[in-house]
Amino acid sequence: MSLSDAFRCVRCDVPLAMYTRLQLGGKAEFFAEPETENELISLLKHCRQEQTPVHVIGTGANILVPDDGVAGLTIALSRPAFNGITVAGQRITAGAGTKFGQIITQAVVSGLGGIEGLIGIPGTLGGILAGNSGTNANGDVGQCVESVRIADFAGNVSDIPKRDITFAYRDSSLDSAVILSATLLLDKDDPAELAKRMQKLWIVCKTQQPAGELPSIYPFKNPTSGTSAGDLIDQAGLKGTKVGGAGVSERNAGFIVVEPECIANDVVRLISLIKDEVANLTEIELETALQIW
Ligand SMILES: Cc1cc2nc3c(=O)[nH]c(=O)nc-3n(C[C@H](O)[C@H](O)[C@H](O)COP(=O)(O)OP(=O)(O)OC[C@H]3O[C@@H](n4cnc5c(N)ncnc54)[C@H](O)[C@@H]3O)c2cc1C
Fold first, then answer.
1. Distance from Cα 1 to the centre of ligand 1, integer Å
2. Which ligand 1 atom is nearest residue 63's CA?
3. Which residue has the least CA distance to atom 49 on ligand 1?
4. Last residue of a domain, one of 57, 80, 103
5. Quick one: 105 and 199 in the same domain?
6. Would you say the CB of residue 83 lies under 6 angstroms from ligand 1?
7. Which of 11, 48, 79, 170 is catalytic?
8. Domain limits for position 19
9. Are residues 91 and 63 in the same domain?
10. Which protein residue has the closest C-alpha to ligand 1 atom 7?
11. Ligand 1 centroid to 127 CA: how many Å?
């Protein structure tokens, strides 16, 4: 029995462009927005049994979907069961599908500090934790995690304490499971001071991102040498360089912006060109943070 016959929440041949920040790429063979944790678990068990590959998508801020689409099942935790925030003392617990910006705002309003410096990073809590998102100046999300609830791809659910999770630079040991929710342990602080700090950092963040309406991504990890990927790309003289409809941002060379006629393969080719040019000039191999499915 096909997945869409077995599960009401599954649809076939769903264009994924509308689920990604770049609005590019082909279709998901199967796409599911499960209504409950039990439904998600049944889906994972079914896929394991049928050897169907499974992908999870958040806001698609760090995913490039190939033009010829994605085989298997793509899952989005967009339903209310996976969204929502509760605050208890210094702890915030949220569903993995919750937008991280909402969690930061709730923390600030509740007088809880520690994540306000990450304002402006787009994504859901699940995506932010999977890639241990952060900034050089303000740390990363892993520092504030107390525990994470996951389902492995065989459908087994467990609560993992921080000591059993590895958080590294733009990487975590959580990327081989479906993150369901997490609890962050934050510091008590003055809400007014936190709000001021958050607003200041929001403005700084927005001035560093490409201006205008075109969708953009930040596809590279910053090299461990301390230089930013954007600085290296700028030094290589690549600002404004284009491949098809994909171009290096004029404002911050770390970003790629896409024109309406862009296809996913233009982005792949531009990333490859940037890597080659930067390696030729600086002998530094840029690593891709963007997940190319
Ligand atoms: C303009 C812009 C600025 C950015 N700035 C920064 C920055 O300053 N610092 C930084 O670290 N990143 C930055 N990013 C990258 C991006 O915001 C992060 O990678 C973010 O975590 C993506 O979240 P998402 O929900 O969109 O995840 P997606 O892009 O949808 O997915 C990313 C990865 O997470 C996995 N994933 C998503 N949800 C789950 C889940 N529930 N369980 C398991 N795995 C899951 C996906 O399978 C995929 O492998 C930026 C991106 C953009 C476009």
1. 33
2. 29
3. 291
4. 80
5. yes
6. no
7. 170
8. 3-80
9. no
10. 121
11. 4
Count the residues in the chain.
293
Cα angle: 169, vertex 20, 279; to 5 degrees? 45
* In the block, residue with structure tokens 């049928």: 50
Are residues 144 and 97 part of one domain? yes
Q: pLDDT value at position 227?
A: 85
Residue 170 annotated to the active site: yes
| Phi and psi, residue 248, nearest 5° | -80, 130
User: How far from 62 is each of 58, 83, 186, 253, CA to CA, in Å?
Assistant: 9, 20, 26, 17
Residue range 42-95, pLDDT digits in tens:
999 999 999 999 999 999 999 999 999 999 999 999 999 999 999 999 999 999
The CATH number covering residue 152 comes to: 3.30.465.10
pTM of the model: 0.96
Last-in-domain residue among 144, 178, 206: 206
Task: Based on the fold, state whether residues 59 and 112 are members of the same structural domain.
Answer: no
- Which amino acid makes up residue 156? N
Give the whole-angstrom CA distance, residue 258 versus residue 216. Answer: 6
